[in-house]
Amino acid sequence: MPSAETLSRVKKVVRACLKVDEQTVLDDRMPLVGGEFDLDSLDILLIVTELEKEFKVSIKEGTTMGKAAFTNIETLGAFIEGLPRTA
User: Fold this and answer.
1) Residue 20 CB contacts under 8 Å (≥ 6 apart), including other chains
2) What dihedral angle (degrees, nearest 10) is formed by the CA atoms of 41, 37, 55, 22?
3) Which sign does the torsion angle of CA 1, 67, 44, 86 carry?
4) Residues near 61 by Cβ (< 8 Å), separated by ≥ 6?
5) Which domains does the chain have, with CATH numbers?
6) In principle, which of 4, 20, 76, 80 could form an S-S bond with 15, CB 3.0–4.6 Å?
7) How confident is the model over 9-65, as pLDDT tens digits?
8) Whose CA is closest to 37, among 68, 71, 5?
9) Alpha carbon separation from 57 to 6, 27, 41, 52 (Å, rounded)
10) What is d(CA 47, CA 6) in angstroms, rounded to the nearest whole number?
11) What is the pTM of this model?
């Protein structure tokens, strides 16, 4: 399970990308694809780009980031924590 700090930062990115206000509750296990916000490919691209900036990671093509990483906030946080940090 990802740390509380990671989850908070992932939520910050998701909120900014989807233009969701601070009062909207983003549950750690809320489905991202097919759920209330039903992310599409452009949303995912934007979130990936912003996660790279926020966490100083590089998610290269061919990385094992699949649909499962976007199951929910928790799986996205776990994926990010598993990536090596860039300088």
Assistant:
1) 14, 26, 37
2) 150
3) positive
4) none
5) 4-81 (1.10.1200.10)
6) 20
7) 999 999 999 999 989 999 999 999 888 888 898 999 999 999 999 999 988 766 667
8) 71
9) 13, 24, 20, 5
10) 14
11) 0.88
Q: Which pair of structure tokens corresponds to residue 86?
A: 């860039």
* Token code pair at residue 21: 């206000």
83, 51 contact by CB (below 8 A) = no
Tokens 């509750």, located at residue = 25
Place of tokens 């209330």: 36
Q: How many CB atoms lie within 10 A of CB 37?
A: 17
For residue 61, the SS3 value is coil
